[in-house]
Amino acid sequence: MNRSIKTVAVVAAMVVLVGGVVLMAKLPGGLAVADDNQQVRFNKAYAAELAKQKAQYDAATARLSAMSSQVKTAEAISEVFHAVASKLEPSVVQITSEHTAQMPDLAPFEKFFDNPDDMKKFFENRPRTQRSVATGSGVIITKDGYVLTNNHVVAGAERVSVTLAGQDGESVQAKVIGADPRTDVAVIKIEDAKDLVPAELGDSDQMEVGDWVMAIGSPFGLSRSVTVGIVSAKGRANVGIADYEDFIQTDASINPGNSGGPLVNISGQVIGINTAIASRSGGNQGIGFSIPINMIKALLPRLEKGETIHRGYLGVLIQPLTRKLADSFNYDSTRGALVSQVRGDSPSKDRLQVGDIINEVDGRKVAGPNELRQLIAAVAPGQSVKLGVYRDGKQITVEVKLGELPDDEMRPGLPAPPAAGGDSQALLGIGVKTLTEADAKKLGLEGRKGVLVTAVDPDSEASREGLTPGDVITQVQGKAVADADAFAQALSGAKDRGTVRLLVISKDGGSRFVLLPLKK
Does the active-site annotation cover 203? Predict the structure, then answer.
């Protein structure tokens, strides 16, 4: 055999192909030949990896087999979510609202032009108005097309349209029937609708922290999106979204466009209307807020008729009870709402007193100020309520005929604004003087008696409690103080207590109780 032919035959015999990979070694003269040692190492490593993966697969299969009951439970939960989403799909809609906004005035741009005519020429083709389109969500609540949503989704809209499930982008016209900005709820009506599929409204009072919930809507315009989470908290108030707040908090993802969509329980019942999120980025961060459906149910009959929502009004300012404040009244609980001011023209002027602790409304226990506001607001003006009141160490019942909440009433979701207080610089870290007639007139407190705070030590507890110069103190430990001498005597008499309770009127006329330690 020819020498060159022999060499080629040897090389061909030494080339090994394994799994499509050729392992070659260089021979003198530039010819390549397979490296037997390298091939053996590869085969062993490959076989070991296959064996490891096979063992992992077998172990996982065995574990799943042993956990068959748990797997079935997970599959059952998944099936529940699927069923709930299917049940709600025909009832959840996407809402589009169109607005026209006036363009801003050109005056701020004048500084950029030496000649006003140049500015006019530069902006001569500028449109005078600008149209904007916003999207939100809603849930059908009647067969003939009434839809529940947020007020902020449709407020001020010139045109409202609704996209129903299965319409593939086609929309129908709707009109706003009723709205309540104080709770951020609105009802719209789809024109010429019939035989729609309404959602079932549940009982939000039955929901507990940890219960499964689903949020359904059109986040970022993506219709019929479903997210799952739990009830994270109940009774969230003072969030700053609406005047009346009693939100269900959830970690089910809520994003822009979800507003107005339903929050549902695992029975497929609507237990809330998704309203807002707490976020620094504008996107979901696991804290969403929904209006409880029970709060909305009380408004629906009037909203569906397009009626204005009228609310009951006690005419008092209230604040939460801290443990120390409660102790100062010899009250053995922090449940209830402390009356810090009774307005002169209010329905309660002859029935309630400053220092009263309201802990019941018509037999229903009051946990705090927010619940009291909700209960009173739910009663129509002109009706009477029986209030359970703790006064001077005794529990009594007071009946009050409610007035109507004024439009300019202080936002009811918040306690009375921070006020101030004072006494001698040595005892409380504040300075005071007798409130003169001129001072009272300047502050809008004509006819009132008390002491005017003139200075507050910035390092004192009084400062930390929000007391500022210009505030007026009218009571010490429940007793009226007419001037600086009476104030000093009242403080002296409270030295043995270690703390003193002041009733303070702030610059805007609101009042609150402040509990301060007395310096030794």
Answer: no
